[in-house]
Amino acid sequence: MRLIRLSESVIRRTCRCFSSDQTAVSSTIPITQKQNAVFDREKERQLSLVKAIEKVHVKHLGPEDECSLMMNKYLSTPYHVAMHLGEPYCKHSGIAVVNGSLWHMLQPLQEDSELSFVRFKDDKPFEVNKAFWRSCSHLMGAVLQKAFKEEVLVEPVRTPFIPLSAGCFAYDVNIPFKWEPTREELVILSREAYVIMKSKANFERLEVRPDVAMEIFEDNVYKKHFVEQLQGKGLNRVTLFRLGDFIDISRGPMMTNTDFFSPHRFVFTCVHSIDDYLRPKNKLLRFQGVALPADFDTHHTTWDPILQRAKKPVHHDLVPFQTKDDGDAQTDRQIEES
What we know:
By secondary structure, the chain is an alpha+beta fold. Helices cover 34% and strands 24% of the residues. The protein is built from nine helices and twelve strands. Strands 2-1-5-3-4 form a five-stranded mixed β-sheet. It has a four-stranded antiparallel β-sheet with strand order 6-7-12-11. Strand 3 and strand 4 form a beta hairpin. Helix 4 packs across helix 5. The relative contact order is 0.15.
């Protein structure tokens, strides 16, 4: 059954895909539309709560351009601060640090703040690299949601924790057929990512109540399970990110927009099956990839070993909320600092 579609930029061709006896019970498109309607409604509701413009004092800390600014409470973001400082800050600042906490560049400021920016070429880029990897997984999820024909129900599952030492990022999905993609099909998925990157779409952040998150993901058993687990841990807010029309749960922060990706250095490298932690008789697909930030370029002789390493299947973090391996986290930091 031919189920994968191509973007218009790759000419309207279809590629081989194999279907099992299981068939899709619904379509991804109406589910996506409903999710975005709830997201937009909640976003507008939160904006309506800002009845009057209040000011907050923001002090920019950094090796250069230290200054103090008066910004709009609940409306201004670190990106607005970067705009005051100049284009290089907007173009190269992946994330911000606000009063000691990691902060998404499009996340509104809530109080008087001391703010600094984190760039890829800083001496300690560990956190911005993690945010970039996290954004790569989110972009991968966005590609997978729209890559298949509308009669195929694609269930986004989650972004697994993959240590930086593994040399790849990943996204897990549930699709209603068995699939062993060809090299051409992986190239098609990478080109779909290129189309999204060229749009310079923002990574939008929104904090919502658990009941709103449950409404958004009412058709996705994996997301509902995730929200329930968060509630069980006593959390009363769920952080969502949206890229285009793809919405997912993530603590963030992520990149400001897709302009932070090097367009020809985002590659789907492999797909392999993993156990489904909610449906024991089912298998999930784990898609892996590798990418570079736009601030860096590399010769193909350097890029090829990076690509080959990312093709090795990674069976890590198969079940959400299991204890993170502190050894992996320590190894990641050692790699960053070396």
